[in-house]
Amino acid sequence: MTSYRGTPPWLLAPAAVAFLLIVVPLLALAARVPWPRFGELITAPSAVAALTLSVATASISALLCLLFGTPVALLLARDAVPGRRLLRSLILVPLVLPPVVGGLALLYSLGRRGIVGQGLEALGITVAFTSVAVVLAQTFVSLPFYIVSLEGSLRSTGTRYEAVAATLGASPTRVLARVTLPLVLPGIASAGVLAFARALGEFGATITFAGSLEGVTRTLPLEIYLQREVDPDAAAALALVLVVVAVAVVALTSGPLRRGLRSYR
Amino acid sequence: MRRSFSALAVIGAALVTLTGCSAPASTEETPAASPTASESTLSGTVTVFAAASLTDVFGQIADEFMAANPGTDIAFSFGGSSDLVSQLIEGAPADVFASADQNNMAKAVEGGVIAGEPELFASNTLSIVVPAGNPAGVEDFADLAGEGVRVVVCAPQVPCGAATEKVEAETGVALAPVSEEQSVTDVLAKVSSGEADAGLVYVTDVKRAGDAVEGIAFDASAAAVNLYPIAVTRGAADPETAAAFVAFVLGDTGQRLLAAAGFGAAP
Fold first, then answer.
1. Which domains are present in chain B?
2. Out of 1.10.150.20, 3.40.50.2300, 3.10.350.10, 1.10.3720.10, which CATH number does the structure's domain A51-264 have?
3. Which residue among A113, A207, A229 sits closest to B186, beta carbon to beta carbon?
4. pLDDT of A73-91, one tens digit each?
5. A94/A141 Cα distance (integer angstroms)
6. Nearest CB neighbour to A129, from listed B155, B179, B182
7. Taking Cα atoms as reference points, which of B152, B159, B146 lies closest to residue B188?
8. In terms of CA atoms, which chain B residue is nearest residue A110?
């Protein structure tokens, strides 16, 4: 079966506009980087601290999405919960919320005077101004991406094999472990990469909720924003690092992993 | 097909919005008072780029200026001083620039966007700020280094953070802040929400923040006085009216309103 490739030629014009809108600013950014100082700028202690913190917190956030987001995606995709539409709308809220507002919402719930935070404070647990706050802010903004992406994969995979396994006497847990999850593994991988990338770029919720201290809460986006005050060239260099890390992660993890998993399937 | 058309409509709407932004918003037509002999013949719109800490007081000064000079209009863009400098150097159309520190004005002068010599028009000093009720019982600068006191300051890269470092050096008190924020506004937000026990901001910020916070003056703040320079830009569309506004800020009315907002006089 050959697929239909006859797109109308006039589509090229608006497509080119979209492409240029994304690519031109990235090229302009690369053009601003002071290349002779590039190595020195990105290996400065504050830059290394920020990059390390960013990669660590974004990894943990992606992992949390995996642990807590996968069940949500499964329940939503398999129509297993009442009020699914309302539930999905609520889960999607952080997607459209300005991140700063997300940060405020986190502050009002988990901050020192927040409805949950007050209780935690009484137990001697402080969230604000710690790396935990960074992870929470990142997870808050990346969970919807993870859930929506994985729910899409689950729906397109269908339930044929699961139904067969069930008629052969497999328990729901066994079906999940032996059929559903292996089938949707590529979807989990790409949703996880998406969540990681979103967490890596998180800025608004972090600066509102977690604060900004080197090595503790100052992630790469916050470091870029701060460097811009004194050394815009350094900010451009760090921004490029962030772009490269994001592109590398998406290209390296997503492509080969998905292809590999597909051939395995 | 229909989808592409609605996408085009969105782009179109966005373009309209964007171009709409660049047109100066003409506000406040002052009722035409009969011009007296002392009344100047100034007219036109002056766009002022001013530090965020000047938001309220410059609004008041502009109202007075427009009342005294019917036919003129003052438009503002308020922001962090360093942001404003970058925008100026990148070609943003402004007629007057008022910075919260001399460092950023120097950058603007170096960038070749300032006409003539900048003039100092106000000063500002640091103040301790605590949440209403002062839960950590902070009384002086030394208390900020106390056990279990969560202090938030500005990062050394921004003017308020540089001033904080000077005070630390002067007093010999080394702070261990839980966060080094981007701006005084961020510090103030962390304190007024009760996340932090204390912060360091400018006297005028405490005044603007209202009842959620209390200000605590301290002697060593004299070690770091921030001076505010103002200047007409090189690209000013109407240098005469722009210079008149600068003179108005430096004049009696401007200085009176600045003092009422908590600013100190320029040396």
1. 44-123+226-260 (3.40.190.10), 126-223 (3.40.190.10)
2. 1.10.3720.10
3. A207
4. 999 998 778 888 898 899 9
5. 6
6. B179
7. B152
8. B195
